[in-house]
Amino acid sequence: MTLDLNRRAAARIDAISGTTTELGIEAQTLSSGGRVFDFGINARGGLEAGLAIADICMAGLGRVSLAQRSLVQEDGGKIGWPHVSVTTDQPVAACLLSQYAGWQIGVGKFFAMGSGPMRAVSAGEELFGTLDYRESSDRVVGVLETSTLPDAGVFEYIAEKCRTTSDNVDLLVAPTSSMAGNLQVVARSVETALHKLFELGFDVGRIRSGCGSAPLSPVARDDLAGIGRTNDAILYGGRVTLWVSGDDESLAEIGPQVPASASDVYGRPFLEIFEQANRDFYAIDPLLFSPAEITFQNVETGRVQSFGSVNHDVLGESFGL
């Protein structure tokens, strides 16, 4: 069965193509025919652009929104603060098969973390074999977290991996230190929970729906600081609820391992952890990458189990509160 992830994402790109000015994005067609949509490198971008890129990254199988809530300050007071909320009734497809940034794209001096439904066509990650999914699509859509616009060589590389031609590749790009790029990373609260469960060997097919939120981190001065703040938003402020089927015992057993606090390196701003690991994500304890709080609601037994909690102190330090 195909989920038509790329077709769904392409339809959403076509829908916003006539509103690039309003969204503050810039579209460019390369000589090879590939299209690049700049959401924040040279373009202004913004909140609506961030919501759009997050939606496309999930192939339209989720809903991303902003809501004004609150954060706790160092003195215990509260201030209004925007939170990014995500809901989906297709969590595996939207989050693992599409949104997860599992494709490292390196072409010459160009490097970016690739996400979006193009991954399901390339299917080079072990995840696709485990989940037994691979998509065939002439037109492919990808999201790149980068501060450099991709050139023709990047399009050719992706087209080759996806068994298509450059003119059938659409790439949406934004740096972490942009409004849109910042938002689309924080919109991954549910995705990080699913990926953590997947890595722990949990049967993600049991997950019916997901709902999550995380505080929108302040836009950082540069991409390195942005990586720190966006990770902190989820690791120390993300809250996710998953509706699941099956037995309660396995949830009780795996639950304590799911929140970010299960990691021994938990408790410091991510940028400090990243620097100590020589800026190598793969040198960091993988147990860290998860929301601060996870709640399971069993749709068959009615039992609710919750693990972890928000860490206001680290959030305040990271966000400069």
Which structural class should the secondary elements be placed in?
Answer: alpha+beta
Strand order within the widest beta sheet: 1-2-8-7-6-5
Unreliably modeled segments:
none
Encode the helix/strand succession as letters.
Answer: HHEEHEEHEEHHEHEHHEHEHHEEH
Number of domains: 2
Description:
Helix content is 34%, strand content 24%. It has 321 residues and is of the alpha+beta class. It folds into 2 domains: 1-60 and 92-175, Methenyltetrahydromethanopterin Cyclohydrolase, Chain A, domain 1; 188-321, 2-Layer Sandwich (Methenyltetrahydromethanopterin Cyclohydrolase, Chain A, domain 2), CATH 3.30.1030. The strands form 2 sheets. Strands 1-2-8-7-6-5 form a 6-stranded mixed sheet, with helices on both faces. A 6-stranded mixed sheet has the order 3-4-9-10-11-12. α10 packs across α12. The longest helix is centred in the C-terminal third of the chain and has 13 residues, at 223-235. It starts with a helix and ends with a helix. The mean pLDDT is 95.
Keywords:
about 325 residues, alpha+beta, Methenyltetrahydromethanopterin Cyclohydrolase, Chain A, domain 1, Methenyltetrahydromethanopterin Cyclohydrolase, Chain A, domain 2, six-stranded mixed sheet, about 25% strand
Give a nutshell description of this structure.
This protein has 321 residues and is an alpha+beta fold.
